[in-house]
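Render this sequence as a predicted structure.
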Amino acid sequence: MQTEFEDEQFGLELHRCRLALGWTARQLALLYSESIGREEDPIDVSFIYRLEGGKDMLVDKGRRALLARLVDMPVAAAGLGLLMSESATNPFVWEHVDKKEYTETLEHYCNTWQQGTTYKEVKDIKKRVLSLEHATLYSSRSDKKTPELLCGYQILAADVASEQLIGAANPILTGTIQLAKEKKLYNIYAHALRQRAGSSIDTFEQTHDYSVLTQALNDFQAAETVQPHISAFYKAIVDIRRGLAYAYVARDQREFTEALTIIDSSSKQIGKQSDDKSIAARLDEERYRFNRASAYLYSPQGSPRLALTELNQAVDAKPETSPRRGVHRDLLFAETYMALGNYPLAIAHADAAVEVTSINGMDTLFNRLEGIYRSLRQSDYRNDPDVARLGVHILKAQQPELFV
């Protein structure tokens, strides 16, 4: 077998290093035997002589490294320079932040968010967040782009985390809010507050725990303090969620109607291009109808029948939708039909959501799907075989590796 170095050169270096230590070939043979676990059956001294004479060679890099280390041979002479250089990396060297490339990648992730597969890039997103945290720490006062990028990637990371675990986005967004406020990045500050409030809203929709809405209301109140400094687009995407939170805590029909009015005010921005491509939030007729449907569905002042009307209007507005939006739409239909007591249709829409998830390789909103399944298991319909089938479908979509 051809090697990366000359056998004779290795043998001469081995011989030189052994003599420099004052060792006999037998001593080296015994030490080498000990290092490879052959104390009871040591190698013959002739093996050392053959190596030194260039007549034999250790192909195994591990054993060659042991022998070289025993005689303090330079790794280059042992033909191990490349091997050692690959393992001897500096763990504290941070990746250089190419702002143009980081911006383009962030925009790509946000533009493809509705495909529901961003979770597959979680390692890359995490790596970029860490690099940007380091770069931001040492950035100059005049450098606003680096902290802007960090905030953008943190919000994206929070979006991914929120779909995996309830409340997982909050610690990430808290850091974003603090940084954006310090750097006077008002649009990002308002959006990060909106996203953290949204995390509380999502938790309420799944747990019906009104105490979690306190944080959401506080966040929206903080966002209002910077309204004069934010764009019309950001004001709209904040208001559509602010109105939803107010609808959930409405104590009577008057307060509920006022909350819907806030949601409706955001519709003026429908169809207008976002003035920031580095966030995943988009505002269109479908999103607007989803929020109105949620208000009717989850508010004590609402009506599941009116929620169903809003969802049907969303379908009319956009019959063909993105995979992620499709899953969200079917989940809302399923929860609405459960509230109306129409369990067969609730299961049909939940199954449709599972199918879209599986076909598109998504890992999104499984916590909501599981919540629907658990609700069905606790309903009067719990003994129907279709409920059991839905549970199996969710399990197969969540953990496909178990069924290969």
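Summary. The longest helix spans residues 186-207. The CA atoms of residues 117 and 363 lie 7 Å apart.
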